[in-house]
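Let us work through a complete example step by step.
Step 1: write down the sequence.
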Amino acid sequence: MSSGSDAERKAGATRPSSPEDVLPAVQPPNAGFLLQLFLIPMMIVSVIVAVWFMFSWLASAGSDPRELVRDLKKLNNSSWQKAVSLANQLQDPKYDGLRDDADLARELAGVLRVELDSGLADDARVSLRVYLCRILGEFRVDAGLPTLLEAAKREKSIEEVRVRVSALEALAVLANNIGPDKARDADGFVDTVLECSQAVAPSQDTEGLYAELRSRAGFVLGVLGGDAARDRLVQLLDDSYPNARYNAATGLARQGDPRCARVLLAMLDPNNQESVKGETIDSNREAKRLSVMVNGLRAAGQLLDQLDEKSQTDDTRAIRSEVEKLSEQGEPKAIGLVARDVLRGLARTP
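Step 2: predict the structure and record it as tokens.
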């Protein structure tokens, strides 16, 4: 017969342990644990921040605009990065005065001319010419205009179509900066842009590149205005490339020419499939559709603002009706907001 103490020991062996028996005793954190938990991560973050500030300081230390221009003249495969930095600085209010510096514009135009003459077609040198064009477009003086016009025409290889497109974009900005009247009077300006607006692809594989060239030229013509520009824009309303038609329509609207109404109505159509032609990704298709509609709405406002009742046509009245419809039913909301803003602007017109 087992003793009482033996029975108690057997019962204790089969009884479940309490949480106090299983978990270790709670100990206060020691200095080593606190060091690992707080101090070491803090040191790592501090090192990262210090390195970031060091690189920022080094970048700003070497970003003087005139030093960047001197570096550009070395014409190596990293020059395009200097050109990107300079292009960004010319858009910075801090360096606004540089945009009136004719000597600086001539210096940069000289670099671009050397690059154009070289005809080098590797990506780094083509990118350099692209950004040099963009830089020259930011100026409020026309010292770089002759070289930009040359860049818009020059094409030694198919890679340089990128440069021509960039030159046309720069010419549009420059024409706006110096004034359309002065730009139209500049020797060769209108003729060069008209020539670009008639660009034809040498092969079907390159049709997209040259279509964009015509499209950009149409935008420049819309900024320039004048009889020759408007006549060519009317022809571009029937271009096979949607963007060329849309730029022609917005350019004519800017000039108050109601001949753009037919294409503007297409731009305002939410179901316009032409506006997303060539876009294969759904998000890109939606972004493009909205961009075309927003540009159409703004162009519609510019056109209607310049037409009196006698100048109205059935198409221009249809445009106003469509803007009103989009102001009430526009989806997404951004379209409705833009449409309502256009109508408010028209209501303020005397």
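Step 3: interpret the result. The CA atoms of residues 305 and 348 lie 10 Å apart.
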